[in-house]
Amino acid sequence: MTRIYFTLFIASQLLLFGCTNETVERPTRDTVTSVVTENEARPTFLFSGETKYAKMLRFDANMIGYFSHLHNSIASEQFSVFDVRRSVAENNVNLQSVQSTSTNSLSFTINGIDAQDVKNQRGTQQLRSMRAGGNPLFGNTVNFSLSSTSANDEDGASNALRSGNSNDSREVTMYVPELVQILSPRVETTQDLLPYCFYRNFILEWNADPNNENGLVVAVEWNGGDIFGKHYGEYVINVDIITEDNGRTILDNRLFDRIPQGAIANLLLVRGNIEIIEDFVNEHGKEEAYRIVAASQAVLPFIMVREITIID
Question: Nearest to residue 46, comparing CAs of 251, 277, 232?
C-alpha cells in the first residue's frame, strides 16, 4: 500500500500543479511515463471546459507552495511544503526535488515564515499554530512572497541576503480553500475502510467551501490490483472537474471506465488554488516562471462494483 500511496501523491501533482483558464490538454506519453515507472499511466480527462486546474502539466514553471494529503478519511494528515530550494515534509523526510535550481539566494515565505523552516521543529510548530489560530493556511487568505538576491557577493549568498540586494521580489495573496474531506461514502472506523461502491450514479459528498470559486478535481485511480489477489499489470487514472463546490455531486460514470469488477481503486478529491509568477528574475539575472500552489487532497480507497447479482 505504501507504493500505491506514493503513486497517488505523484498523481495528485499531475492534477494540481498548473494554471490559467484554458481547455484541459491530454499529456503526452513521454511526459507521464516518467512518473509511473512500472505501470504506464494514461490519464483520461473528461472535462473540456475552462477551469483553474487546467494546464495540469506545466513543467516550464517551478512549483512552490504546500499540499495536504489524507490517505483515507481516518488517516493522519500528511503536510508537505515545496520550496525554491527543495521539497520538505512535516516529518523531516526529504521528498523528491521539484526545482531546477538549488540555491540559498532565493527566499520563499508563507505568511512571513520561511518555507524551509517547516523541516525543523520550530518551523513546524509555527505553521501548525498558524493553521489552528487566527491565520490558518486553509480556509483563509494566505500571503506568499518570493524574492531573489544577487549571488555575486564574494562572501556568497548569505551576505547578499543581509545586504538586501534583491534582483526581484514578488508577492501573491490568494484564498486557499478549506481542507477537503470526503463525507460520503462515510468512513469512520477501520471496519469502514474499502467500502463496496457501485459505479453508476455514484453520489459523492464532501465539506463544501462557499468561498472556493475554483471547483474541485475528482479522479479515480486504479493500480491494477483486485480483492482476489490478481494483478492486471496496468494503471488507470480518469480525471474530471466538479465545477460547483456545494458539497454534493453525482459522478460521471466514465470516471470508472477500464476498472473491472472487484478492483481495489482510489477516489481522489482535490481542492486548492494556483497562481503563476511569470518572468521572475532569479539570482543569476535570468527569467523563470513559478507556480504557487496551495491545495489539499482526500482519498477514498474502495472496491469496484460493476455488476450486482440478485439471488431469489
Answer: 251
- Name residue, grid cell 516550464: 60
CA distance 292 to 201: 35
Cβ neighbours of 180 (radius 10 Å) = 24
Through-space distance between the first and last CA atoms of the chain, rounded to whole angstroms: 38
Residues ≥6 apart with Cβ < 8 Å to 259: 199, 220, 222, 236, 265, 304, 306
Residues of the chain predicted below pLDDT 50? 1-39, 86-103, 121-122, 153-165
Q: Which three cell numbers stand for residue 151?
A: 549571488
Whether a cis peptide bond, with omega within 30° of 0, leads into 185 is yes
Helical ranges in the chain per DSSP H: 2-16, 29-33, 121-132, 157-163
111-160 per-position pLDDT tens digit: 888 887 755 544 556 555 655 555 578 999 999 999 987 655 444 444 43
Cβ contacts of residue 127 below 8 Å, gap of 6+? 79, 110, 113, 117, 118, 137
CA-atom Rg of the chain in angstroms = 21
What are 15's three cell numbers? Answer: 492534477
Q: What's the sign of the alpha-carbon dihedral 246, 250, 252, 258?
A: positive
